[in-house]
Amino acid sequence: MQLNNNVTEFILLGLTQDPFRKKIVFVTFLLFYLGTLLGNLLIITTIKTSRALGSPMYFFLFYLSLSDTCFSTSIAPRTIMDALWKKATISFSECIIQVFSLHFFGCLEIFILILMAIDRYVAICKPLHYMTIMSRRVCSVLVAVAWVGSCVHSLVQIFLALRLPFCGPNEIDHYFCDLEPLLKLACTDIYVTNLLLVSNSGAICTVSFVVLMFSYVIILHSLRNHSAEGRRKALSTCISHITVVILFFGPCIFIYTRPATTFPMDKMIAVFYTIGTPLLNPLIYTLRNAEVKNAMRKLWSKKLVSDDMR
C-alpha cells in the first residue's frame, strides 16, 4: 500500500526550529534517556540477580522496567539525533516501525500495570491463596497474554496507518511518528479512522485506567481489616502503583481520546509520557520500596567485593 503514496519520507518538525532551543532539547532528552536506561536496567539487573525479589510483584516489575526501557528507546534516540540536524527526515518505513514500537511497548506497559494491580489484589485480599493463584506459571502465562495483546493492538495501528494515502504535504508537526499526526497529512476523509483510533487506543487507555483505579479502591478498602504494620506496607506499595498509573494514563487519555483535535500543549504532554514517565517509574519504585533498595545495596556490595578481590 506504500507504493500508492507519493510521499516516501516525512519531515519531523520536532519540538522547536530554534537552534538554541534545539540544543536544550538535545541535552534534556539525552539526560532523561540516560537516566531512564540507568534506572530501569538497574532494576532489571537487581531483580534478576536477587533471590529476595522472587515474588510475582517483582516478576511483573521486571517486565514493567523492560517495557519502559524499550518504550523510551523507540523515541528518545531518534529525537536526540534529530535535534542535531537542521532538517529531520524519516522514511515511510521507519515511521511505520516507530508507530508499531511506540504502541506495542506503550500497550505492554498498560497491561503490565493491570497485572501488577491483580497481583496486589490477590496478595492483600486473598493472602492465604496468594502463592497458589499467582504461581510462576500463571504469571508467565499472563505476561505472554500481555505481549500478544500488545502485538494485536500495534498491528491495528499499522493497519490504520497503511490505509492512509499520502499525496501532499509531508511535514509532521511532532517529534515522532504517531497515527494522530499522520492523520492530518492524509489526503482522504479520516472520520472513520478517527473513530477507530478512539475506539482502539482511546478505549484501551480509558477503560484500563478506570479498571485500575476501581481495583485500587477495593484494595485500599480491604486494608482496614489488616494490622497497622501490614496496612502501612501495603499502603506504601499501592500508593507507588497509583502514582505510576496516574502519571502514565493522564497524558495518554488526554492525547488519544480526542485525535480529531489538537492543542498547542500536545507535544509537551507527549514529552511527559514518552521520556518523563519511564524515568520516574524506577525512582518511584526504588525510593518507596525497602526490599528493592536493600537488594540494590547487596548487589552493589557484592560488586565492590569482587572488584577488590581482583
TrEMBL record:
Entry-linked PROSITE patterns: G_PROTEIN_RECEP_F1_1 (PS00237), G_PROTEIN_RECEP_F1_2 (PS50262)
Origin superkingdom: Eukaryota
InterPro entries, per the entry: GPCR_Rhodpsn, GPCR_Rhodpsn_7TM, Olfact_rcpt, Olfactory_Receptors
Official protein name in the record: Olfactory receptor
Membrane-crossing residue ranges in chain numbering: 24-45, 57-76, 96-118, 138-160, 201-223, 235-256, 268-287
Gene, per the UniProt record: LOC107158897
Pfam families named in the record: 7tm_4
Domain G-protein coupled receptors family 1 profile: residue ranges: 39-285
One example GO MF annotation: G protein-coupled receptor activity
Lipid bilayer topology: Multi-pass membrane protein
Subcellular locations according to the entry: Cell membrane; Membrane
PANTHER family: OLFACTORY RECEPTOR
UniProt lineage: Eukaryota, Metazoa, Chordata, Craniata, Vertebrata
Keyword Transmembrane helix assigned: yes
Alphabetically ordered keywords of this record: Cell membrane, G-protein coupled receptor, Membrane, Olfaction, Receptor, Sensory transduction, Transducer, Transmembrane, Transmembrane helix
GO cellular component: plasma membrane
